Amino acid sequence: MLAVGWAKLLLLLLCLGATKSFATEELLLWHGYRGAERQALERLLDDYNRSQVDVRVRALAVPYGGYADKLSAALPRGQGPDLFIFAHDRIGGWGRAGPTIAPIGEVAAPEVLQRFPEKLLGAMRYRGHLYGLPFNFKSTALIYNRALIAQPPVGSDEMIALARAHTDRKRGRFGLAYSYTEPFFHGALMNAFGPGPFDGNNRLALDSEANIRSLQLLADWARGDAVLPEEPNSTLVSELFNQGRAAMVISGPWMLGEIAPQIDYGVATLPLISESGRPLAPWVAVEGLFMSPWSRHRAASYRVMEFLTRRSAAETMAISGGQLPANLSAFEHPQLAANRAAVAFRSQLDSAVPIPNLPEMTLLWAPLENVLKKVVKGAAQPAAELQRLQRKLERDIAALEASRQQDAERGPPVWLQGAVPLLLLAVVTAVILRRRRIAESWRRNRTAYLYVLPAMLGMLLLVFFPLLYGLLLSFTDTTLLNENSPLASRWLGLDNYVGILGDWNLWYGEGAERSINFDNFYWTLLVTVCWTVSNVIISVGLALLLALALHRPIFGRTGFRLLLILPWAIPNYITALVWKGMFHPQFGVINQALQIFGIAPVAWFDSVGASFFTGLVTNLWLSIPFMMVVILGGLQSIPRELYEAARVEGAGRWFQFRSITLPLLKPVLVPATILSVVWTFNMFNVIYLVSDGAPAGANDILITRAFRIGFEKYQYAYAAAYSMVILALLFCYALWQTRVSRALEVAR
Amino acid sequence: MASIEFKQVVKRYGDSPPTVPGLDLHIRDGELMVLVGPSGCGKSTTLRMIAGLESVTSGELWIGDRLANQLPPKDRDVAMVFQNYALYPHMTVFENLAFGLRVRRQPQSLIKSRVEMAAESLGLGDLLARKPGQLSGGQCQRVALGRAMVRDPQVFLFDEPLSNLDAELRVQMRGNIGRLHRELATTSVYVTHDQVEAMTLGSRIAILNGGELMQVGTPMALYGDPDNVFVAGFMGAPPMNIVTVQNRGSGLKNSLVDLQRDGVEGLAGELLLGLRPEKLCHAAAAPAHWPRIRAAIEMVETLGAEMLVHLSVGGVQGDERMIARLPGLQLLTPGDSLELAFDPDAVYLFDAASHRRIRESRPVAVAEPC
């Protein structure tokens, strides 16, 4: 009887356990939210979890900086979340690259899709497949200072007239401010004149009449009407607006949180283009809820997507999270209906255009920004420049497409297929042949090997593996579009290297329009060599002068030393950004100082020389402290008696410097110079953050160029080959340098 | 060649008390003057003032017939040998030797012949292509000497040049320097803290203490006729025994010594009595009228031919101590009592307060053996 009782109890417990384990099946949701948005989302998910018995959603906030890369790395390999929230512009790339996001057209019920306007749903479609449910949207609109602008303008002419009335360049006041050299913002003009960068068949049409006219209009605003500040960025725009020095700005809902409390602002839809009567049509970025094709709980995932796009959820995300929900019915909520800014952004959606989600679009941002910068400065004609960009991008797109088409046909050459097993065999044979010596060495130096082991593993993992992977990658044609296909199918051989080293297109254009092709490897190499040589010579020279000055017992020596070492203590990207700010043509302290002395301000980033100079100054600022400390150390190690002996012998200062200081500093100067050459050669931060290779990539060095090829053109393999070429150059330099140092060593 | 003269020369760093409070010293043309004294006595500073490496705060410094106070080092025509040799490590021996001539833009042929001559006389002929890092200490020192020689300057300055060498090399180098000075007869100033070096090298010795000149004279004059307790104690190894004695009018007495003496009636009640260690001998072998000393043997340093016997009265913690230099090869045991005697004419008297010598009418027996 007792046994039966126990059995029943056991059965009951088992049943409970089963129920429990069934309920703990969980869905993982990734998002990039912080602050109020995150809280609102988590609250919704808590509500959802409470209402469910069989499923639980766990949210993971991924830092925004690496979010896209993390998704791209995890999803194709069957890892990562069941569902995630991300902007729609990557859909095309992911859709083409392989199993990254799951189409949901078959599971999405029509009544659910009815929640969203067709425009936002369209953003979620690629090549006829629906990949996600729209969650929220962001576009730009006109934000104006009500103290200066009584009534927002209706037409563009009216807007510019108003802007002109509020512009006083001398006092740093502008009628209109926005990041007009960023393609995302210029989209409003492009879309107002025509279909944007792609034609109706999704073919690139940058040099269309409409796009040329949009650029001309922008150039008129910037140079003709001169109502816009130079070299704008989002920080500058919000600063001008907060100081009451910009009457109107074009920006998105993200700026509202940054507006100073004393500014009474209004939000309005962007005006109509006066000549055509068509509205300025800003690009809208749509965040969607997407599903992993690997999720084992796809039905459950879809239910979560459906839940999060319900009106009640949309209201929560809008009211508590500050989002503009894609389920537009939420705007009927009294609290939202009363929010004038939200209503204005909602109205802007009517004319806004979703950013094309074609993979080609990702290639467009960086080069189009360069074109915009050139055109607004009058350095290029819109038509010619857009035609050139069109040809360039066509080539880049063709390279991407080619990589994909060749997938099936390619494979590594026969010799390579045979080479790998042969290599393995050779290694194994070598180990077997030398097994006695290896065993002997292991026995004798076991402790030493054990000590070295962690470092060896670290090196293997962090240095040799990436290096080998990079080397392999450089023999393929891996791009954004085929990175998930097997390595063998991407095999290309030496073509990338031939492409880099055999690129003798040093010029483009003909006759008067002929100019240097800044994308060419040899130009970049020349810039890199000039950059390295000038930096090293000047920094070593100046550091030597400073060290000599500070070596003497002058007044306040400790203070000076501290001051001069200080730049070293600040992270170099911060220093770089500070210098970039100081070189700003309109608001930078350098031009303002020049003007005090009656010198005309310099457009620092417009010419190759001036732009090179900005990088040079910044890098010198960064590198001199190190050099100076090293040289000071060297100076201090020279015995004082040598100078005394020389003085007694009758040597003057210069003779002492030449025959004692310099030769005895050599053991310090040589390694410091070697290091400096390598660091400067690969000084990514300064170039990328200060001049950003301006103008038009003319000042890019090899390492920034490699980055652009990899992460702006998405030609990963070509970038890997570029990196290998850089490595080879530095390797040759190191070999040469070692020989020189050894010669010096012998001479000592 | 030139003489050097210090007239009331003061050297002061900042607000601190002067390192050299007022030096009057004449260094004759062609002599080798040794500046000797304990560390921090200002001897190196004095030398560096001659070289022009330190400025003169006040007073006058004459080199030859030129007032050198403001003269830069290169115009003084002096050569200096440094304690740490100060050889240029990146230059060969030849280049080191030629440095001064190159600075003065001498013709190549002259440089070559002068360097080779100097190298030859110092035995550096085979080392000309080497760098200082490949030389021994003695070789480095010879290169440093050669570097001073090649220019044929008016004055040689030596700043403790032998202190980094081992004892054997030091003796050898001392000989070298002495020979060079005799051959070249260049005015030389030699700084050392080693009184043996001073005694063996110097034409004259200037003893400095605390920046002040204690006494100048030939080695034997300083040894035999010291002006004060410091000089008496500094010259000679082991130093002169100095003991405090009570003046009884008719004689001098303390726990160790009891000396009948005429002519001390007018002197202070307490005096310092100086007696060289070699002037103490076994009582058995001494004349009967020599005063006796009975003391305990505290320690015996056996040097072979002779021994240094440390004596004390009243056991190990005795009040008065003395050192006696006795013939070697005797069996003396610490703790044993020993009776010694000394020549009353070999005694020096000093004022206990000023430490100055009290010169008596009788001569001091310096030369007579015990």
Summarize the structure in words.
Chain A has 748 residues and is α/β, with parallel strands linked by helices. Chain A has 5 domains: 25-135 and 287-350, Periplasmic binding protein-like II (D-Maltodextrin-Binding Protein, domain 2, 3-Layer(aba) Sandwich); 139-285 and 354-397, D-Maltodextrin-Binding Protein, domain 2, CATH 3.40.190.10; 425-463, no CATH class; 475-510 and 706-748, no CATH class; 526-700, MetI-like fold (Orthogonal Bundle), CATH 1.10.3720. Helix content of chain A is 58%, strand content 8%. Chain A has 30 helices and 14 strands. In chain A, strands 1, 2, 3, 6, 11 and 12 form a 6-stranded mixed β-sheet that branches. In chain A, a hairpin with a 2-residue loop joins strand 4 (125-126) and strand 5 (129-130). The radius of gyration of chain A is 31 Å and the shape is globular. Mean pLDDT of chain A is 88; it is low at 13-22. Chain B has a 6-stranded mixed β-sheet, with helices on both faces. A 6-stranded antiparallel β-sheet of chain B has the order 13-12-11-14-20-21. The model of chain B has no long low-confidence stretch (mean pLDDT 88). Chain B folds into 2 domains: 4-229, P-loop containing nucleotide triphosphate hydrolases (Rossmann fold), CATH 3.40.50.300; 239-358, Beta Barrel (OB fold (Dihydrolipoamide Acetyltransferase, E2P)). In chain B, a hairpin with an 8-residue loop joins strand 1 and strand 2. By secondary structure, chain B is α+β, with helices and mostly antiparallel strands. Chains A and B meet through helix 26 and helix 27 of A and strand 6 and helix 2 of B.
